[in-house]
Amino acid sequence: NAGVTQTPKFRILKIGQSMTLQCTQDMNHNYMYWYRQDPGMGLKLIYYSVGAGITDKGEVPNGYNVSRSTTEDFPLRLELAAPSQTSVYFCASSYGTGLTNSPLHFGNGTRLTVT
Amino acid sequence: QKEVEQNSGPLSVPEGAIASLNCTYSDRGSQSFFWYRQYSGKSPELIMSIYSNGDKEDGRFTAQLNKASQYVSLLIRDSQPSDSATYLCAVSGGNQFYFGTGTSLTVIP
Known about the structure:
The structure holds two protein chains of two kinds. By secondary structure, chain A is mainly β.
Protein backbone atom coordinates (compact mmCIF):
# COMPACT_ATOMS: atom_id res chain seq x y z
CA ASN A 1 0.00 0.00 0.00
CA ALA A 2 1.53 3.28 -1.13
CA GLY A 3 -0.51 5.65 1.08
CA VAL A 4 0.70 9.24 0.71
CA THR A 5 3.61 9.69 -1.67
CA GLN A 6 5.71 12.85 -1.83
CA THR A 7 8.37 13.76 -4.36
CA PRO A 8 11.12 14.81 -4.32
CA LYS A 9 12.63 13.71 -1.00
CA PHE A 10 15.30 16.40 -1.06
CA ARG A 11 15.78 19.59 -3.04
CA ILE A 12 18.13 22.55 -2.99
CA LEU A 13 16.87 25.75 -4.58
CA LYS A 14 18.53 29.06 -5.23
CA ILE A 15 16.81 32.22 -4.06
CA GLY A 16 14.19 33.28 -6.58
CA GLN A 17 13.75 29.86 -8.19
CA SER A 18 10.39 28.11 -8.29
CA MET A 19 9.42 24.50 -7.83
CA THR A 20 6.47 22.20 -7.27
CA LEU A 21 6.31 19.65 -4.49
CA GLN A 22 4.26 16.69 -5.58
CA CYS A 23 1.83 14.78 -3.37
CA THR A 24 -0.45 11.92 -4.30
CA GLN A 25 -2.55 9.53 -2.24
CA ASP A 26 -4.24 6.27 -3.17
CA MET A 27 -6.65 5.98 -0.22
CA ASN A 28 -9.50 7.93 -1.84
CA HIS A 29 -9.26 10.56 0.88
CA ASN A 30 -11.17 13.78 0.31
CA TYR A 31 -9.13 15.91 2.70
CA MET A 32 -5.52 16.77 1.96
CA TYR A 33 -3.07 19.06 3.76
CA TRP A 34 0.34 20.65 3.40
CA TYR A 35 2.39 21.34 6.53
CA ARG A 36 5.85 22.71 7.04
CA GLN A 37 8.05 21.88 9.99
CA ASP A 38 11.08 23.96 10.85
CA PRO A 39 13.89 22.36 12.88
CA GLY A 40 12.81 21.67 16.45
CA MET A 41 9.40 23.20 15.85
CA GLY A 42 5.84 22.03 15.43
CA LEU A 43 3.77 21.55 12.30
CA LYS A 44 2.36 24.64 10.61
CA LEU A 45 -0.51 24.33 8.14
CA ILE A 46 0.15 25.95 4.76
CA TYR A 47 -2.90 25.00 2.69
CA TYR A 48 -5.59 22.36 2.76
CA SER A 49 -8.30 20.96 0.53
CA VAL A 50 -11.57 19.23 1.39
CA GLY A 51 -12.13 17.93 -2.12
CA ALA A 52 -11.25 18.32 -5.77
CA GLY A 53 -11.55 21.94 -6.85
CA ILE A 54 -11.60 23.31 -3.29
CA THR A 55 -8.60 24.78 -1.48
CA ASP A 56 -8.20 26.96 1.61
CA LYS A 57 -5.39 28.84 3.28
CA GLY A 58 -3.89 27.63 6.50
CA GLU A 59 -1.74 29.43 9.02
CA VAL A 60 1.26 30.24 6.76
CA PRO A 61 0.15 30.43 3.09
CA ASN A 62 2.31 33.35 1.91
CA GLY A 63 4.76 32.37 -0.81
CA TYR A 64 2.89 29.18 -1.72
CA ASN A 65 0.10 28.11 -4.03
CA VAL A 66 -1.85 24.89 -4.39
CA SER A 67 -4.31 23.27 -6.74
CA ARG A 68 -6.55 20.22 -6.43
CA SER A 69 -7.73 19.05 -9.82
CA THR A 70 -8.16 15.40 -8.77
CA THR A 71 -8.92 13.57 -5.54
CA GLU A 72 -5.51 11.92 -5.62
CA ASP A 73 -3.15 14.85 -6.23
CA PHE A 74 -2.41 17.99 -4.23
CA PRO A 75 0.75 19.74 -5.49
CA LEU A 76 2.33 22.66 -3.61
CA ARG A 77 3.93 25.40 -5.67
CA LEU A 78 6.72 27.63 -4.37
CA GLU A 79 7.17 30.83 -6.33
CA LEU A 80 10.30 32.97 -5.90
CA ALA A 81 11.91 30.80 -3.24
CA ALA A 82 13.28 32.58 -0.17
CA PRO A 83 15.62 31.31 2.60
CA SER A 84 12.66 31.49 5.02
CA GLN A 85 11.10 28.63 3.06
CA THR A 86 13.88 26.26 4.07
CA SER A 87 11.98 23.58 5.92
CA VAL A 88 10.63 20.04 5.80
CA TYR A 89 7.30 19.83 4.01
CA PHE A 90 4.75 17.15 4.81
CA CYS A 91 1.69 16.26 2.81
CA ALA A 92 -1.10 14.44 4.62
CA SER A 93 -4.57 13.14 3.92
CA SER A 94 -7.71 11.99 5.73
CA TYR A 95 -11.26 10.87 5.03
CA GLY A 96 -12.44 13.92 6.93
CA THR A 97 -12.54 15.62 10.30
CA GLY A 98 -16.21 15.03 11.03
CA LEU A 99 -15.79 11.29 11.07
CA THR A 100 -14.53 9.06 13.81
CA ASN A 101 -11.68 6.72 13.02
CA SER A 102 -10.34 9.15 10.45
CA PRO A 103 -6.80 10.07 11.38
CA LEU A 104 -4.31 12.01 9.30
CA HIS A 105 -1.89 9.96 7.21
CA PHE A 106 1.45 11.56 6.41
CA GLY A 107 3.83 11.26 3.52
CA ASN A 108 7.56 10.87 4.12
CA GLY A 109 8.29 14.55 3.61
CA THR A 110 10.35 16.76 1.33
CA ARG A 111 13.43 18.42 2.79
CA LEU A 112 13.91 21.76 1.04
CA THR A 113 16.89 24.08 1.36
CA VAL A 114 16.89 27.55 -0.20
CA THR A 115 20.31 29.18 -0.50
CA GLN B 1 -7.69 30.00 16.95
CA LYS B 2 -8.05 26.49 18.33
CA GLU B 3 -5.14 25.62 20.57
CA VAL B 4 -3.50 22.38 21.59
CA GLU B 5 -0.98 22.60 24.41
CA GLN B 6 1.68 20.10 25.37
CA ASN B 7 4.63 20.23 27.74
CA SER B 8 7.62 20.49 25.44
CA GLY B 9 9.83 18.50 27.79
CA PRO B 10 12.26 17.03 27.43
CA LEU B 11 10.90 14.13 29.42
CA SER B 12 13.36 11.47 30.49
CA VAL B 13 12.39 8.13 31.97
CA PRO B 14 14.43 5.00 32.73
CA GLU B 15 13.88 1.89 30.66
CA GLY B 16 10.93 -0.12 31.93
CA ALA B 17 9.21 2.86 33.56
CA ILE B 18 5.89 4.46 32.64
CA ALA B 19 6.06 7.61 30.52
CA SER B 20 3.14 10.00 30.88
CA LEU B 21 2.45 12.59 28.20
CA ASN B 22 -0.24 15.23 28.56
CA CYS B 23 -2.21 17.47 26.25
CA THR B 24 -4.96 20.06 26.69
CA TYR B 25 -7.14 21.59 23.99
CA SER B 26 -9.24 24.71 23.77
CA ASP B 27 -12.19 23.73 21.55
CA ARG B 28 -14.83 22.05 23.69
CA GLY B 29 -16.57 20.80 20.53
CA SER B 30 -13.60 18.67 19.43
CA GLN B 31 -14.51 15.06 18.78
CA SER B 32 -11.40 13.22 17.63
CA PHE B 33 -8.02 13.02 19.30
CA PHE B 34 -4.78 11.48 18.13
CA TRP B 35 -1.26 10.77 19.30
CA TYR B 36 1.53 10.69 16.77
CA ARG B 37 5.14 9.65 17.25
CA GLN B 38 7.85 11.39 15.27
CA TYR B 39 11.40 10.15 15.15
CA SER B 40 14.07 12.70 14.27
CA GLY B 41 14.11 13.30 10.52
CA LYS B 42 11.00 11.22 9.93
CA SER B 43 7.33 11.92 9.37
CA PRO B 44 4.71 11.64 12.14
CA GLU B 45 3.17 8.20 12.51
CA LEU B 46 -0.14 7.51 14.20
CA ILE B 47 0.09 5.45 17.37
CA MET B 48 -3.29 6.04 19.04
CA SER B 49 -6.66 7.59 18.33
CA ILE B 50 -9.47 8.13 20.84
CA TYR B 51 -12.98 9.47 20.45
CA SER B 52 -14.85 8.67 23.68
CA ASN B 53 -14.25 9.58 27.30
CA GLY B 54 -12.21 7.04 29.19
CA ASP B 55 -9.25 4.85 28.41
CA LYS B 56 -8.19 3.06 25.25
CA GLU B 57 -5.40 0.52 25.38
CA ASP B 58 -3.24 -0.81 22.56
CA GLY B 59 -0.31 -2.92 23.65
CA ARG B 60 1.98 -0.82 25.82
CA PHE B 61 0.09 2.37 24.98
CA THR B 62 -2.97 3.77 26.76
CA ALA B 63 -4.75 6.92 25.68
CA GLN B 64 -7.00 8.68 28.16
CA LEU B 65 -9.63 11.27 27.26
CA ASN B 66 -11.55 13.60 29.57
CA LYS B 67 -13.73 15.91 27.50
CA ALA B 68 -15.08 17.77 30.53
CA SER B 69 -11.54 18.78 31.46
CA GLN B 70 -10.47 19.10 27.80
CA TYR B 71 -7.56 16.83 28.51
CA VAL B 72 -6.02 13.89 26.69
CA SER B 73 -3.02 11.88 27.79
CA LEU B 74 -0.82 9.05 26.60
CA LEU B 75 0.77 6.49 28.88
CA ILE B 76 3.60 4.31 27.66
CA ARG B 77 4.20 1.30 29.89
CA ASP B 78 7.48 -0.61 30.04
CA SER B 79 9.21 2.20 28.14
CA GLN B 80 11.92 1.11 25.72
CA PRO B 81 14.82 3.08 24.22
CA SER B 82 13.05 2.73 20.87
CA ASP B 83 10.23 4.87 22.31
CA SER B 84 12.60 7.86 22.37
CA ALA B 85 10.95 10.34 20.01
CA THR B 86 8.76 13.42 19.92
CA TYR B 87 5.08 12.78 20.62
CA LEU B 88 2.53 15.02 18.98
CA CYS B 89 -1.01 15.49 20.24
CA ALA B 90 -3.58 16.31 17.55
CA VAL B 91 -7.22 17.33 17.70
CA SER B 92 -9.56 17.52 14.73
CA GLY B 93 -12.24 20.17 14.34
CA GLY B 94 -13.82 22.12 11.53
CA ASN B 95 -11.87 21.00 8.49
CA GLN B 96 -8.48 20.93 10.15
CA PHE B 97 -6.23 19.00 12.46
CA TYR B 98 -4.63 21.05 15.22
CA PHE B 99 -1.28 19.93 16.59
CA GLY B 100 0.59 20.64 19.76
CA THR B 101 4.28 21.46 19.50
CA GLY B 102 5.20 18.01 20.77
CA THR B 103 6.84 16.47 23.83
CA SER B 104 10.34 15.08 23.47
CA LEU B 105 10.74 11.75 25.27
CA THR B 106 14.05 10.08 26.03
CA VAL B 107 14.11 6.57 27.49
CA ILE B 108 17.38 5.94 29.27
CA PRO B 109 18.74 2.36 29.07
